[in-house]
Design goal:
Strand order of the largest sheet: 2-3-4-11-6-9
Order of helices and strands: EEEEEEEEEEEEEEEEEEE
Organism: Litorilituus lipolyticus
CATH class of the largest domain: Mainly Beta
Distance between the termini: 29 Å
CATH topology of the largest domain: Jelly Rolls
Radius of gyration: 17 Å
Oligomer: single chain
CATH architecture of the largest domain: Sandwich
Protein name: HutD family protein
Largest sheet: 6 strands, antiparallel
Number of helices: 0
Structural class: mainly beta
InterPro entries: RmlC-like_jellyroll, RmlC_Cupin_sf, Uncharacterised_HutD/Ves
C-alpha cells in the first residue's frame, strides 16, 4: 500500500534533551519518544551542542538545509556533513557533539531500534529513477527537498509534492511489482524487520 502524507499531519515535539524541537514525520504504531521501533523527523539546529541519548538505536542523519555540520562522537568517529544530502550513520548511544559550520542547519533523522529493524538510507541529488523491490524490505519512505516524486507501480501512478512524505507498506504478496520513484534531491529509506529468533 502506498500513502502520501501531507505536512499537516506532521507533529512538532520537544527534543528528548529539551534543547530544541523537532518535526516528527512518522513513527512506528503505538510508540512514544522513549520506546519506538522506527522514527522519521526533521530538526532545526541553531546552536552547537550535544545530541540526545538514543541508546539502542541506529541513527542516520541527512543534511537538508544550511552550510554544514560536524558530528564528533566519543567512539572517535567524525562525520563531516558539508553538502546537501550528505549522510552520517552512527550509534544513538554514542555521546555526539554537533558543531555548526556557519549558521543554522536542518537535518532529516531516521532512527531504527537495533535488533528490530535494519535501515538503509540513500540520497539522490540529480533527477533519476530509483527502483524498489517490495520483497526486499518491510517498509519504505521517500521525501524530496525540491520537487514532486512520481511513484509508479504497474499501471498505478501517484505523486508526492515537495515536503510531503511517501510511505510504502510492503506487506502484500511476494508477486507485487517493483515500485519506481522518479525525482531529484530525494531521501529514500528502506526499513527491514529482523526475523524473531526462535
Amino acid at each position: 500500500m502506498i500513502t502520501v502524507i501531507s505536512p499537516e499531519y506532521f507533529k512538532t515535539i520537544p527534543w528528548k534533551n529539551g534543547l530544541g524541537s523537532t518535526t516528527e514525520l512518522a513513527i512506528s504504531p503505538n510508540s512514544t519518544l522513549a520506546d519506538f521501533d522506527w522514527r522519521l523527523s526533521i530538526a532545526t539546529v541553531a546552536n552547537n551542542g550535544m545530541f540526545s541519548d538514543f541508546s539502542g538505536y541506529e541513527r542516520n542523519l541527512v543534511l537538508i538545509e544550511g552550510n554544514g555540520l560536524t558530528l564528533k562522537h566519543d567512539s572517535g568517529q567524525v562525520d563531516e556533513l558539508s553538502q546537501l544530502l550528505d549522510i552520517a550513520n552512527f550509534d544513538g548511544g554514542w555521546k555526539t557533539d554537533g558543531l555548526l559550520t556557519n549558521g543554522t542547519i536542518k537535518d532529516f533523522n531516521i532512527m531504527a531500534k537495533q535488533g528490530c529493524y535494519q535501515s538503509n538510507v540513500c540520497t539522490y541529488v540529480a533527477k533519476q529513477v530509483v527502483t524498489l523491490d517490495p520483497k526486499r524490505s518491510s517498509l519504505c519512505f521517500a521525501y524530496s527537498l525540491s520537487g514532486e516524486i512520481q511513484i509508479i507501480q504497474g499501471d498505478h501512478k501517484l505523486f508526492a509534492p515537495k515536503g510531503f512524505l511517501c510511505r510504502i507498506d510492503n506487506q502484500e504478496s511476494a508477486s507485487e511489482k517493483d515500485i519506481n520513484l522518479i525525482g531529484e534531491q530525494m531521501i529514500v529509506i528502506e526499513l527491514t524487520k529482523h526475523e524473531a529468533k526462535r
